[in-house]
Amino acid sequence: xxxxxxxxxxxxxxxxxxxxxxxxxxxxxxxxxxxxxxxxxxxxxxxxxxxxxxxxxxxxxxxxxxxxxxxxxxxxxxxxxxxxxxxxxxxxxxxxxxxxxxxxxxxxxxxxxxxxxxxxxxxxxxxxxxxxxxxxxxxxxxxxxxxxxxxxxxxxxxxxxxxxxxxxxxxxxxxxxxxxxxxxxxxxxxxxxxxxxxxxxxxxxxxxxxxxxxxxxxxxxxxxxxxxxxxxxxxxxxxxxxxxxxxxxxxxxxxxxxxxxxxxxxxxxxxxx
Length: 273
Fold this sequence. Notes:
The protein is α/β, with parallel strands linked by helices. It has helices spanning 22-33, 49-59, 70-76, 82-87, 106-117, 134-145, 160-168, 178-182, 225-232, 241-256, 262-267; strands at residues 10-14, 39-43, 62-65, 79-80, 92-96, 99-103, 127-130, 151-154, 172-175, 187-190, 213-216, 237-238.
């Protein structure tokens, strides 16, 4: 799915969003390719999202979407890609004659992150998914595509995991606590914002099964507290930085119809890794 006309400028919509690394590596990619557009953060409160999208449409802008707007952008989109329909969330967008086009590149980013964490793939793995928002929808679709085994889901809001399963067509079991969800799982994915600010953890590493691998979709300089704690107990673990760059590279290709310059993107993050 490629934009017919490249966006005039690029933004990442979220709240909060100042922490985002997307402008750093996307601007490096734009400069590398000689494109005049620039990429910036745009902090938008939920009740201002629709009006902000109208303004961006008038400019012919495009960009990415992060917490907490992925599902709301899905609802606003005039046209959605197949993968956006599957996940129920939009994390990349642009406009075509004023119509909002919604896409989801998180699935590509997640698949790359999972293969980096588990090179042999996740086929048949028992997975625990923490969270039931837009990122969790992408995680469910990715796990299905990679032929993961049984999936357990936990959400702080009762019933939301079941709704997510219905929306994505996944077969999941909903659990009442994070600890019960991860019990015996060989792969645990944190798709909540827990750990984005501060050192809170989505689940105690002591609750993990021996040998379980963890993927935290949150990213922090030096890794999240949860990933560091899990590694200290012998678990394989990765944070969300690889997923972030890979979903961003996929979005870049959609906006401009060219291969994203990944080396330039990663070079811009050298002091963060």
